[in-house]
Amino acid sequence: MATITITAENFEAEVLKSDKPVLLDFWAAWCGPCRRLLPIVDEIAEERSDIKVGKINVNEQPELAEQFQIMGVPTFVVMKDGKAVNRQTGADGKEDLLELIAE
Question: Model-level pTM?
Answer without folding.
Answer: 0.97
